[in-house]
Amino acid sequence: MWCLVTVISADSISSLPSLALFGGTFNPVHHGHLRMALEVAETIGVESMRLVPAARPPHRAQPLISVEHRLAMLRLAVKGDPMLSVDDRELARAGLSFTIDTVASVRDEVGPDVSICLCMGVDAYSELHRWHRWRELSDYVHIVIITRPGWRLNEAPELIQWREQRQLKKSTDLSSSAAGSCLLLELTSLTISSTHIRQLVASGLSPRYLLPDPVYHYMQEHGLYTSLQENNHDTGN
């Protein structure tokens, strides 16, 4: 999401400070989100992973659960984890949650000499060409596309050309520059979805052990997802 390049010495390859961003509605956050975020961070070797909850996602229905509840659950989920943190800048910003605004804001915050990776699932990537000012994303960050074993990319022609021009072969190359590259990362994800959790709760069943206990207890305390309206409005994972 930022197009900033660091000069690398011919004698040795320098490694920039690094962080990653992983966005979503987190409605609610569950172990699949958390395990994926941690595994990606460790695999690509970043120093920290920021989970970025969206307030008003442009490409899906806005969650009826308030941003305050989703943020509180996310903070409970990562509390005490030295790798994972919550970045609430989209919740504090008015209007739709455009990713280009988020990455530009993070770049302004950390400066030009930090490698930033925007991580997204293959489903989100397949719609990337429909995102607001999507071609500018690599001006600010690297793009890490998380695929599943055996999964084939479903790409629009403009995405294929864009990706092939930027694609890296090794995750270790991400830290040699601040932005501008693309990496395909194959991981086996936990088959847990927020949709299924909401369906369980709306049906009077327990979602325990699919999500952290503090999140489960918070949902119980506040009576979240007990109505069909809350359950059906947002189809995000």
The major sheet is characterized as:
6 strands, parallel
Intertermini distance? 24 Å
Radius of gyration, in Å, reads 18 Å
Q: Helical content, roughly?
A: 25-40%
**Strand percent estimate:** 5-15%
Quaternary: single chain
Average pLDDT taken over every residue: 89
Low-confidence stretches: 1-13
* Helix-strand string: EHEHEHEHEHEHHH
Number of strands: 6
Strand order of the largest sheet: 3-2-1-4-5-6
Number of helices: 8
Classification by helices and strands: alpha/beta
Short description:
The chain is of the alpha/beta class and 237 residues long. The protein is built from 8 helices and 6 strands. The longest helix is centred in the N-terminal third of the chain and has 14 residues, at 31-44.
Description:
The protein has 237 residues and is α/β, with parallel strands linked by helices. It has eight helices and six strands. β1, α1 (31-44) and β2 form a beta-alpha-beta unit. α2 packs antiparallel against α7. It is globular. Mean pLDDT is 89; it is low at 1-13.
Keywords:
237 residues, 6 strands
Topology readout:
Elements lengths: L17 E7 L6 H14 L4 E5 L13 H12 L5 E3 L12 H12 L4 E7 H5 L15 E6 L9 H10 L15 E5 L7 H9 L10 H10 L5 H6 L4
Parallel strand pairs: 1-2, 1-4, 2-3, 4-5, 5-6
Helix pairs in contact: 2-7
